[in-house]
């Protein structure tokens, strides 16, 4: 189930309790490349508890990505850390934790070169489309996305308002994967929803026959 070439990341929304999030994560993990713990309001201790409970629920450690807390990623040997643009250069993080996979969230073309030269392993670009998660911010659109992909020598993952039906078009532009929050976590049936994303992602790239 994990042999898809392109990546599907599901990002926690900061609204669910751990008890609400765990059964969803346990259901969806076979269909995703990564589950991001993006719980900015929680303490390190709470994030560590999330990690331990996810591991108890058999979520593979290499699928867990944590927003900004590189020391927790390092402590539990997880899949990676997701930095926002304001959190310094990826190389600073790698100096401290050399084996960490570091993704950086970007929002402008001008950031591409900076972060890839400074050690980012991939770029998360958004918001591609309008999304309720970023109220008031218009989507940056597929033209800018295409420019970002052209300039980047490392994988670009798209985020923001992405629906399964838009995935073929985005992959066609050269996107390496997509990340989704509400489309899965606010769906009436998150497992059904993640399968729709999974089918759309694998549809184009799994060799047929
Ligand atoms: C967490 C996040 N980061 C974004 C960025 O542009 O960097 S957009 C976003 C929210 C994505 O949520 P949904 O899939 O529900 O649109």
Automatic annotation (TrEMBL):
Its EC number is 5.3.99.10. One of its GO terms (molecular function) is isomerase activity. Keywords: Isomerase, Thiamine biosynthesis. SUPFAM superfamilies: Thiamin phosphate synthase. It is an enzyme of class 5 (isomerase). This is Thiazole tautomerase (Transcriptional regulator TenI). InterPro entries: Aldolase_TIM, ThiamineP_synth_sf, ThiamineP_synth_TenI. CDD domains: TMP_TenI (cd00564). The keyword Cell division does not apply. Pathway: Cofactor biosynthesis; thiamine diphosphate biosynthesis. Coiled coil: none annotated. It comes from Aquibacillus albus.
């Amino acid at each position: 189930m994990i042999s898809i070439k392109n990546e599907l990341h599901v990002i926690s929304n900061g609204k669910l309790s751990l008890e609400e999030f765990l059964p969803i994560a346990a259901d969806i993990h076979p269909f995703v490349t990564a589950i991001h713990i993006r719980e900015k309001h929680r303490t390190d201790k709470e994030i560590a508890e999330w990690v331990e409970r996810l591991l108890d629920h058999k979520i593979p450690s290499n699928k867990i990505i944590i927003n900004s807390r590189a020391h927790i990623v390092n402590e539990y040997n997880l899949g990676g850390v997701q930095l926002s643009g304001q959190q310094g250069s990826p190389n600073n993080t790698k100096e401290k934790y050399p084996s960490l996979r570091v993704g950086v969230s970007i929002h402008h073309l001008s950031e591409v070169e900076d972060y890839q030269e400074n050690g980012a392993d991939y770029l998360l670009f958004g918001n591609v489309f309008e999304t309720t998660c970023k109220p008031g911010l218009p989507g940056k659109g597929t033209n800018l996305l295409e420019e970002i992909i052209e300039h980047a020598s490392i994988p670009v993952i798209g985020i923001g308002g992405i629906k399964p039906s838009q995935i073929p078009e985005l992959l066609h532009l050269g996107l390496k994967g997509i990340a989704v929050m509400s489309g899965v976590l606010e769906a009436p049936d998150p497992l059904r929803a993640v399968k729709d994303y999974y089918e759309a992602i694998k549809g184009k790239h799994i060799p047929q026959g």
